[in-house]
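Handoff note, outgoing to incoming analyst
You'll be picking up this chain. Sequence as last confirmed:
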Amino acid sequence: MAKVTIKNQDLEIKVDKKMLVNAEQTPEGVVFNFQGGSNYYVIATYMPLEVKEKIKQSVTELFEDANIVIDLTNYKNPVYADLTK
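Most recent structure output, in case you need it:
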């Protein structure tokens, strides 16, 4: 089963990819919505719009069968496939 890892400084959230419903842009940053009604709000007022869009696409479109890592502190490469097992 594919996993998604969300990294934000010292915090790391790792779940099955099917548990993450979507990621949406907000004026303050990004919100991750999980099955069961849980949400993870990221306040990053200086996050560029392009980074928010990449994060949103990664959850819904990119890397469908791969493990992905969303690194919220790395604006140059915020989303990448994790090829390790």
